[in-house]
Structure formats: C-alpha cells, structure tokens
Fold this sequence. Notes:
Elements: H1 4-7, E1 11-13, E2 16-18, E3 25-29, H2 37-50, E4 54-58, H3 65-74, E5 79-82, H4 87-95, E6 100-103, H5 111-124, E7 128-133, H6 139-142, H7 149-166, E8 172-177, H8 181-194, E9 201-202, H9 210-226, E10 232-233, H10 241-254, E11 263-266, H11 277-288, E12 296-300, E13 315-319, E14 323-328, E15 331-337, H12 341-351
Parallel strand pairs: 3-4, 3-10, 4-5, 5-6, 6-7, 7-8, 9-10, 11-12, 12-13
Antiparallel strand pairs: 1-2, 13-14, 14-15
Helix pairs in contact: 2-3, 2-10, 4-5, 7-8, 8-9, 9-10
Amino acid sequence: MPKPNERTRRVMVGNVALGAGAPCVVQSMLNLPLSDVAGNLAQIERVAQAGCELIRIAVPNKASLDDFEEIVRKSPLPVVADIHFSAELAIEAARRGAAKLRINPGNIGGLDATIPVIDAAREAGIPIRIGVNAGSLDAELANREDLSLPEKLAASAEGYVRFFEEQGFTDVVVSAKAHDVPTTVATYRLLSERIPEVPLHIGVTEAGTLFQGLVKSASGLGILLEQGIGDTMRISLTDDPVEEIRACWCLLGSLGLRRRDPELVSCPTCGRCKVDLIALAQQVEERLRDVHKPIQVAVMGCVVNGPGEAADADIGVACGDGSGIIFAHGETLRKVSEADILEALFEEIEKVQ
C-alpha cells in the first residue's frame, strides 16, 4: 500500500520536486534583514553547502521588494517568499521571481483577497504554500468548542484548499503547525487523511532553542516521517539556519530515509573506558561537519562495544588503555596510540568512497 507521501500530487518549486514519492525536501529560512543583500546571499551559500534545497525569506513591506528581487536573481536555491498581512506584497513577489509563495489566507485579508494572489501565482507558474498556525486561526473557527485544536487546524487548511480548487488552482502545499508535539502530529495525521492529494510541509513551529528545538522537532517529525507523512520539512530553531539543515539531514538519516552526511555512532562511556572518549567523540563530530559522505563512523570506548557491536560501521575506533584499534566493517586495520587516534581515523575516512 502506498505511503501518504507517495499519494500526494507533484509540485515543482523551481527545479525541486515535492510530493508524489519524491524524497522529503529539506528547507530553512533566512534570518537577516532583507536590506542586507550580501549577508542574505552569503547565508544562502552556507545553508546550501549544508544541504538546504529550498530557502524561505520574509518580505515585510514594499520597500524590501527590490532587495528581494536581487536576492532571488542571485540565489543558487529556489526562494520562497513569506508574506503576511498583504495580498499586494504576495502578488508583487510572484512577479519578481519568487519560486513559491507562502501565505496564510486568514491574515492576508480573507478568501476574496487571495483570488488575485492565486491569479498572480498562476501567471508566474509557481505554487502557493497555504500556511495555517494555531495562533492565527479564523476567529469563527478558533471559537468553536466542539472541535479540538488539531481538528480546527485541519478544517482551516482543508477549507482553504477547497477554495483554491474552486478557483481552478491546485498547485498548493499545506502546512498546519503548532508549537507542541501532540497537536502537530495529530493535525498532520488528519490532513493526510482529509486532503491526501496535497503535499505537506511538516514542522513544529516555535520549537525553541537548539537543544529543546531538536528534541521537540525530532520527536514530532520523526513520528510523521516514519508513517510516510511529509513531503518537505523544516526544523525550526532559534539558532543559525545551518543548524536547522544539519538537524534535518540527521533526522532523515536516522530514519533511513535520506542520508547525505556521516552518521556518528558512539557509546555513552562507562568505568571500562580508559581514554577521554567524550572529548574524542566531540572532536570527531566537529571534523565530520566537513565530510559529505553517507557513511557510518563509530567511536567506541572499549572492546566490549567495538568493533563487535559497531561491526556495521564503515570506519571506527575501539579504544583501549591509551590506544585504539581502527577498524572497518568489524575488521581490524591497525592499532594506534591514543594521541594518534583522531588523525588515523580520518586518514581511513578519506579512503572511503
């Protein structure tokens, strides 16, 4: 039986495919003032190197449109225009090269105000992401006591989708986010049932700073992705957008869905450990940031946990008393002193194709 993200229709954002079984697309959002064109372009380059596939940028006012147009023209990634409160801004962003619009009909002036936005997107040949958040539901729906919050969010998103379809526009993606995990998961499960043809952008909004945001996002999005729900994703963090991209790829890799970068396997240490394993694992993790191979690297504290328990690793080290055994797929390659473990490990990583 097809998974939910295999049943959604195909939507193109620039040259990036969403839905219809395409791999879940990784995206982030810039966090600099739009007037800082050079800074925004530099940030796009950084997230692109980290594996970002779509980038979103807030367009707050008319004065920012020239800068937006320049960023779009020079960006190596398709740029999504994030618009609130102004249909006119959305229309102009479409004319100025946006690869996709992100709007919330509930705060852009209502359904009638979206009609010219739909027309502008149709003329530009770009999709629209309908974004619904728990904090910006239509008052009539928000005040209903017979519906749970997930039901309100799903009903709001479905209503907008049906309105867009009445206008003959089906090139849409939907997001319906909340800041807590249970609401987010329940909402997206409802959406995958009620509008199964529509690609879904998944995320836990306002998830928090790096540590809390990673835990909340991984728990919520991990559930959804494992069930086949989600055609594109953002892990929202109060941090550098590069960290969002690294987190997305780590989550996708952990679930066996997509792997771009190395996976680090390391034991939690115990009294048998005779080396400073925590420091060693942190050094390995830091250096792996610059390695872009879908490999598994193991850093194990003693012979109990490696190489036996890490036999599947492409490259690893099993530490002893002031020394370490470098191994590949469970087979010993060489023994080195503790001081040489890091360099020896990366010498072998370099050899992996």
